[in-house]
Specification:
This protein is α+β, with helices and mostly antiparallel strands. It contains eight helices and nine strands. It is globular and about 50 Å long. The mean pLDDT is about 95.
Length: about 280
């Protein structure tokens, strides 16, 4: 893989990710606005949709917080070039998009530009696929991990998710996309929860039990009536996405990752000299 080609692709991908909300998210917000009865919430949704249109038309970020940049790379070779290309692409995009330099030293708070988080996954393909989630701090700060007892079961899972939404949801700029990772270990559950944000909102969960739980949680989350931007109404979340992993017989990790209405993401596929933004 050519590092320069990767860097150019990443720069273009970030431009798209922060300026254009994916069609599935836009459609979900439009549907929410049509159904919303609360006049304050309805006006907020109209404002959000107007903001989305202006950002795309003017090619400017839809939110001033352009987020922490989490990348997912799938391929079987060129991983060194991928890391170097992503880092270079992020440096360029910080200037050209522009992206707000959000990375700071955790103790001194001294700025360190934008430091991408890069995850690699083997795929038996000649092509390389790179995805990014630019996620703002307002919603990322509301992330939670609950270590349940297996005996807590589905009731415990539902109760834990609703507790997190009730306590933190209004601070995460709803309407939310709620990513849930269940199983594995504590750190794997957290990774699963965030990665679910890449799944199209209209894509069916391959696990029937998870799909049923997604529907149940979405209904109950919206019955909380936290509403758009925490101001009340019937739309607290537009989607719940669940990812599962086998876990230890004595464990039940449940990670909850809240994404704000700006469910930003983008993917690029690089096959030799061909670069395709998906």
């Amino acid at each position: 893989m050519d590092r320069k080609r990767i860097a150019e692709a990443v720069e273009r991908m970030l431009q798209k990710a922060v300026n254009e909300l994916p069609p599935d998210s836009v459609e979900a917000l439009r549907e929410a606005e049509k159904k919303e009865k609360n006049p304050v919430a309805k006006e907020q949704l109209k404002t959000i949709l107007k903001n989305i249109g202006l950002a795309k038309g003017k090619k400017v970020p839809m939110c001033q917080d352009t987020g922490t940049l989490t990348f997912y790379v799938k391929g079987k070779e060129g991983l060194k070039e991928a890391r170097e290309g992503i880092e270079e692409g992020v440096r360029k995009a910080t200037e050209t998009v522009p992206l707000r330099p959000n990375s700071v030293h955790p103790i001194t708070r001294k700025t360190e530009g934008n430091q991408p988080i890069i995850n690699f996954e083997y795929a038996d393909s000649e092509c390389m696929e790179i995805s990014v989630i630019p996620k703002g701090a307002g919603c990322e700060n509301m992330s939670s991990l609950v270590m349940l007892s297996p005996s807590d079961g589905t009731k415990g899972i539902v109760a834990s998710v609703l507790k997190v939404i009730a306590e933190k949801g209004r601070n995460a700029c709803p309407p939310l996309v709620v990513g849930i990772g269940m199983g594995g270990t504590s750190e794997e559950a957290m990774q699963l929860a965030k990665k679910t944000l890449l799944v199209p909102l209209n894509e069916k969960n391959p696990d029937a039990l998870a799909e049923s739980l997604e529907k149940e949680l979405l209904k109950k989350i919206n019955e909380l009536e936290i509403g758009t931007m925490g101001l009340g109404g019937s739309t607290t979340a537009i989607a719940v996405k669940i990812a599962l992993r086998p876990t230890h017989t004595a464990s039940l990790p449940v990670a909850i990752n809240l994404q704000c209405w700006a469910n930003r993401k983008a993917t690029v596929r690089i096959c030799g000299e061909r670069v395709e933004l998906l």
